Every structure is written in structure tokens, then in C-alpha cells.
Amino acid sequence: MAQSCKVAVIGAGVAGLVAARELIREGHHVVIFEKGDRIGGTWIYDPRIENDPLGLNPDREIVHSSLYRSLRTNLPRRIMGFSDYPFKVRDEGGDSREFPGHEEVLSYLERFARDFELTDLTRFKTEVTCVRMGTRKDEWLVESRRRKACSGLEPGSEVEMEIFQAVVVCNGHFVEPRIAAIPGIGKWPGKQIHSHNYRMPEPFKDQIVVVIGSGPSAFDISRDIAKVAKEVHLASRSPDIEVGKVHGLDNVWQHLMIESVNEDGSVIFLNGTSTFADTILHCTGYKYHFPFMEIDKIVTVEDNRVGPLYKHVFPPSLAPWLSFIGLPSKVIPFLSAELQAKWLGQILADKVTLPTEEDMLASVNEYYSDMEEMGKPKHHTHVLYPFELQSEYKNWLRAQVGLPPLEQWIWETYVATLKRLISLDDGFREKEDFNHDLQTTLDTALCNCE
Ligand code: FAD
User: Fold this and answer.
1) Closest C-alpha among 319, 290, 313 to residue 302
2) Residue 166 has pLDDT above 90, yes or no
3) Does the beta carbon of 100 lie inside 6 Å of ligand 1?
4) pTM of the prediction?
5) 197 CB within 6 A, ligand 1
6) Any idea of its EC number (predicted)?
7) How far is the CA of 13 from the centre of ligand 1 (A)?
8) How far apart are CA 117 and CA 268, in angstroms?
9) What's the pLDDT tens digit per position in 88-125?
10) Which atom of ligand 1 is nearest to the CA of 337?
11) How many Å apart are CA 411 and CA 415, to the nearest integer?
């Protein structure tokens, strides 16, 4: 195996940037392909919305980012940064809050790219349109085309083809909406939109809005809309959710999932309540999507399972020449991507060895059987929740690259934040007791290190 490889990284978001940095550290030659005109991926706020608000039309012009205008991070900044490049408050000002607004994250990523000289390696406005294997497993043909500034391929732009030894897929997975199936929706007269296309509350002024979901987006967006809407009704699949008026908010109600909707505009919930609504907003997550991959039979996406993938990164039969960084969800994303990237870099540099193809496949199959035994649905394959799954995974990756387990204070901070998110604690980002607890966790950890 080569010590130093020529590697194509697709995407200049968190995953692509940290992958490039780790690959360079291991002496590889990297080209980053980025269809947008700047680095940052998801963290580049784009006020445009797609022409299909549900994001289902495969021919729609895609807007990459799903950020809404008011978005603040849902993890505290102290656990969001890369391990050796903390997400600190900037000397020159900026947003110093523990849960800063999205602009602050973008600025952090721009500094990261600048400091590790990643910008010069990036081919901006260059969309990868096809990736396929050549005559050997370490020969990959990457086709790309130039794009206009913020939309569409440049008409008449030439297809460029280049050969790489390895390809790292980092194209993001918050772009292709999943929506809830609702009995009667075909005849329901209201509007529907997916959170991918939610930007600001003003269009919902005086409306009755039903928000489906119970993740961070449903939480934030329902509160954002409640400032201008007449009523907001949250519908959740979780059977243990507390239904009724949401404490502290005058116009927000929590229900169980929608049972059905009707031609007269009514929405019936499984807990027996109902309302007439103007809009249903689906905060129901996203699908993995790799439109440029020509390896259909080797890696498939079935019910949101990308597989088979050894440890969520390598298709066993193509490892290590094809890899996916950043797929796990319900994790601390920056740290996950960084560890996966370190592992990849060291494998390509021949410092760390992968098991045989058969053993990797056996490990994937064992993982699937364990999921089945635990009654987990296929679409949760890359969901590393409860958090013990994530800590086990991250510590496993750390061991592969010769690092000790992650420090305890990181997990304590993460779990404390999750608890607040899950308990739907309004305004948790500002609560003094919470910020005090986070500080105590960190202080204790630092004290124990001395
Ligand atoms: P992306 O950031 O999506 O980057 C993918 C890049 O690939 C993009 O730049 C895209 O233009 C490019 N690309 C795609 N296809 C091609 C192609 N064919 N050719 C060339 N380039 C291509 N994480 C946190 O840590 N904290 C938070 O508070 C947080 N809040 C979030 C809130 C929302 C609403 C969402 C959607 C996500 C949030 N996340 C949060 C998760 C966030 O997505 C990750 O932090 C991280 O940004 C994911 O990075 P990525 O590189 O995997 O994908």
C-alpha cells in the first residue's frame, strides 16, 4: 500500500475540512472539490428556499444549507471545536455566547481553513458529478463540472476528469428531506414545508401551524414561529411525550403524532385532540444521498442505511480507497469527523491496518444483527444514541489511532446538554444554572488534570 496517496475529498464542510487536514498531516496530496463558492457547508446561511418547499422534486434547484436565520448552536461551543483547535471566543469580538449564532461557527471554520491552509487546496464552484472505480481499487475517476456562483451547473461547462487513488465522501446529509406519511394528506388543503426550507417566522404570521418532530429543529422552529403565529401545535412520534399546553408559552401545544388530516383543513392527533391548520411543517430529518456515486451495487442506501460500511466509514470491498466521513448522527459531529479522518489518514499512510474484507463484513453483519435484536429500525443504522454508543465508537476510533479515551468532562457536558434538549427546557441556552453547571464540569476536569 502507498505511503502517500493522491486523495479527492468531496465537500468543504466540517467533515471535508477536517478530513483534508488529517490527510495532509499524514503526507497525502489532497484536492477538495466544493460546489459552493466558500467553505463551511451547512454553516453558510442561505436565505433562499427551494422551489419545492417539501424538497421532494428530484429536479429542483438545491439549496445546500438548512440553517434558519435565528439558529444558535445546540451544543455548547466548548465541545463543538476540533480537539486541537478549540472553538474559542474570538479576540476581535464576535458572538461570545456559549451557544453562539450560526455566523460564529462559520467564522470558526474559516479560521480553521485559513490556519491549516486548506483554502488553497479547494476547487470552489466545482461540483463532482460522477465518481467511479477505474481498473483497480486504488484508481478512482472523479468527474466534475463548474457551477455558477450560487445555483446550477455552468451551461456548456466542460466535464473534467481526474484520477485519484482514494476518494473521501463528505457531501453532507442535511439536504434531502424525509417527510412524515400522513393519512389524508392528498386532499388536505393547507401548505406543507420541510424544515430544510424554513428560514424565518414572518411568513407564518397569524397562522395556525403544526410542527412535526421532536428534535432540536422542531424545538427551535416551533419557538421561533410562536412569536408571530396564532397557534403552534407540535406533533411527536414519541409515545412518552407530555401532551397539552407547553409550559411558559401562550400559544404552543404538544400533541402525539398526527392520526389523519381532512379535506376541511382539520388535523387530528392520536391523543384525540384536533385543530384546523394553515401549514404543516415537517421537522422530520433527512436522507443520505450520493447522487454522484456510480457504485450502486457495492454501497447502497436502503431505508437510510448506507451499507455495508465498516464502522460507518469503509465499504469493506473497497476499503480504504473509498470512505465516508461524517455519517453518524446524534453525535458531537466535529469530534466524530475528526476521529474518523485521523483513522483514515493513518490507514492510507500504512500506519494502521484494517481487518480483512471478510472480517469487516462480518463486523458489519454483527452490528446489523445486534440492531435487530434490540428492535432498532434500519433507518437508525448511523444514529449513535443512546450516548454510550457514541462514546464506545469514539473511544474505539481513538484507540485505533493510539489516543486515550475522550476526557470525561466532554461526555458530562454533552449529556447535560442532551438532558436540557430532551426535557424541552425553553431558553436552556440562557439559563444561568445550566451555564454554571457546564462551567463547574469543566473546572472540575481541569482541576483533576493538574
Ligand atoms: P456539510 O456541512 O453539509 O458540507 C458538505 C459540503 O459538501 C457542502 O459545502 C456542499 O456544498 C459540498 N458538496 C455536496 N455535494 C457536492 C458535490 N457533488 N460536489 C462538490 N461539493 C459538494 N452540529 C453541531 O456540532 N452543533 C450544532 O449546533 C448543529 N446544529 C445544526 C443545525 C442544523 C439545522 C443542521 C442541519 C445541522 C446542525 N449540526 C450541528 C450538524 C452539522 O451539519 C454538522 O456540524 C456539520 O456541519 C456537518 O458537516 P459536513 O461536512 O458533514 O456536511
Assistant:
1) 290
2) yes
3) no
4) 0.95
5) no
6) 1.-.-.-
7) 5
8) 55
9) 998 888 999 999 999 999 999 999 999 999 999 999 99
10) 52
11) 6
**Within 10 Å of residue 384's Cβ, how many Cβ atoms?**
21
- How far does residue 169's CA lie from ligand 1's centre (Å)? 12
**36 C-beta closer than 6 A to ligand 1:** yes
pLDDT for the residue 424: 66
Return the bridge partners of 82, or none: 85
| Cβ 394 under 6 angstroms from ligand 1 | no
- What's residue 158's pLDDT? 85
ipTM of predicted assembly, 2 dp: 0.99
For ligand 1, the distance from its centroid to the CA atom of residue 14, given in whole angstroms, is 6
Ligand 1 in reach of 11 Cβ (< 6 A) = yes
Per-residue model confidence (pLDDT) at position 162: 98
- As a whole number, the mean pLDDT across the chain is 93
Q: Residue 149: its pLDDT value, please? A: 59
Band (pLDDT 50/70/90 cuts) for residue 185 is very high
Q: Is the CB of 383 under 6 A from ligand 1?
A: no
Report whether residue 232 contacts ligand 1, using a CB cutoff of 6 Å.
no
Which ligand 1 atom is nearest residue 99's CA?
28
Residue 139 cell numbers, joined: 484508481
Query: Does pLDDT of 40 surpass 50?
Result: yes
* Banded pLDDT at 420 (limits 50, 70, 90): confident
- Nearest alpha carbon to residue 332 among 217, 438, 214, 415: 415
Q: β-pairing, 322-324 with 166-169? A: parallel
Q: Is 99 in the pocket of ligand 1 (CB under 6 A)?
A: no
- Strand 300-302 to 305-307 pairing: antiparallel
Ligand 1 pocket, residue 107 CB under 6 Å:
no
Q: pLDDT at position 447, please?
A: 56
In this prediction, residues 131-147 reach a mean pLDDT of 95
